[in-house]
């Protein structure tokens, strides 16, 4: 098992200072991820709005589907991060950070595309 205390194996007193924050920090982070999911839902619905027009065609449907898929990925990432925060020493995986950045870029691109239509 590896953790932050492995670097301090020669000084047990230094490791005693590296403990999980039992306070409100993990809860605030979980709530921030929930707010991010809610705001992503609002953005996704605004991006999908042209698909509900009477003269909507396949491009609008594809944009709406991509926006809703992006929202689903963001909610899944938020759920995964919330579960990570329950561990003793929570760490973000580089893959989830890259996935989150990619989804944000996709949503921004789709939003810009909808504005230009």
Characterise the protein shown here.
- The protein has four helices and no strands.
- By secondary structure, it is mainly alpha-helical.
- It has one domain.
- Helix 2 (25-48) packs antiparallel against helix 3, helix 2 packs parallel to helix 4 and helix 3 packs antiparallel against helix 4.
- The longest helix is centred in the middle third of the chain and has 27 residues, at 58-84.
- The mean pLDDT is 77.
Give the proportion of residues in helices.
Answer: 55-70%
Structural class: mainly alpha
Tally of separate domains: 1
Strand content: under 5%
Strand and helix order: HHHH
Counted by DSSP, the helix tally is 4
How many DSSP E strands? Answer: 0
Q: Roughly how many Å is the radius of gyration? A: 20 Å
Distance between the termini: 53 Å
Q: Mean of residue pLDDT?
A: 77
Net shape? elongated
Report low-confidence residues grouped into runs of 5 or more.
Answer: none
- Biggest sheet, open or closed, and with what strands and sense? none
In short:
This protein has helices at 12-16, 25-48, 58-84, 94-116.
Task: List the topology elements.
Elements: H1 12-16, H2 25-48, H3 58-84, H4 94-116
Helix pairs in contact: 2-3, 2-4, 3-4
Key phrases:
4 helices, DUF202 domain-containing protein, single chain, transmembrane, membrane, mainly alpha, DUF202, transmembrane helix, 117 residues
């Amino acid at each position: 098992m590896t953790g932050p205390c492995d670097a301090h194996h020669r000084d047990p007193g230094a490791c005693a200072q590296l403990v999980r924050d039992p306070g409100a920090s993990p809860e605030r982070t979980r709530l921030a991820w929930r707010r991010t999911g809610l705001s992503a839902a609002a953005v996704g619905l605004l991006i999908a709005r042209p698909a509900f027009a009477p003269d909507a065609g396949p491009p609008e449907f594809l944009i709406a589907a991509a926006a809703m898929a992006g929202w689903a990925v963001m909610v899944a990432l938020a759920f995964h991060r919330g579960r990570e925060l329950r561990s003793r020493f929570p760490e973000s995986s580089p893959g989830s950070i890259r996935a989150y950045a990619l989804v944000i870029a996709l949503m921004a691109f789709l939003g810009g595309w909808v504005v230009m239509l």
